[in-house]
Amino acid sequence: MSEAATAWQRQASGDPAVACPIAPVVDIVFSRWTTPILWALHEYGRQRFVELENRITAITPKVLTQRLRQLERDGLVTRTYHPEVPPRVEYEITDLGRSLAPLFANLAEWAATNLTKVDQARETYDSRP
To answer: For the chain: N or C, fewer Cβ within 10 A?
Structure first.
């Protein structure tokens, strides 16, 4: 099926989640803890669970475990088990995960340029009678 036909099908479905081609990407990449985890692994390289836990202090161990498993399932993170005493597990961002770096860089640039405008718009909206 051609790209045009696929796009038409999405639009014709009437479902915004289906009609928007980036919705699945947003679901994968922008869930609550995904971006801080990917950023930490991209910025600091391979890390053990406790290192990630120390870098992302507001996340609970249970949620960190769940997110890491999902990221591994999505192919964005690899988990390496080292059968030592005590056992050692390390997490690393994959090439697929690293391919998101330009997207994150663009978002960081947008944030630096526009977040003050968003704050101003919110203040203006909130001050309305």
So the answer is: C
Distance, CA of 100 to chain centre: 9
Q: What CA–CA distance (Å, rounded) separates 71 from 81?
A: 16
**How far apart are the C-alpha atoms of 112 and 106, rounded to whole Å?**
10
The arrangement of secondary structure in 3-126, i.e. its CATH architecture, is Orthogonal Bundle (1.10)
| 108/113 Cα distance (integer angstroms) | 9
CA distance 51 to 113: 31
Domain residue limits, the chain: 3-126
pLDDT (tens digit per residue) in 30-65: 888 999 999 999 999 999 999 999 999 999 999 999
102: cis peptide before it, omega within 30°? no
State the SS3 of the chain. CCHHHHHHHHHHHCCHHHHCCCHHHHHHHCCCCHHHHHHHHHHHCCEEHHHHHHHCCCCCHHHHHHHHHHHHHCCCEEEEEECCCCCEEEEEECHHHHCCHHHHHHHHHHHHHHHHHHHHHHHHHHCCC
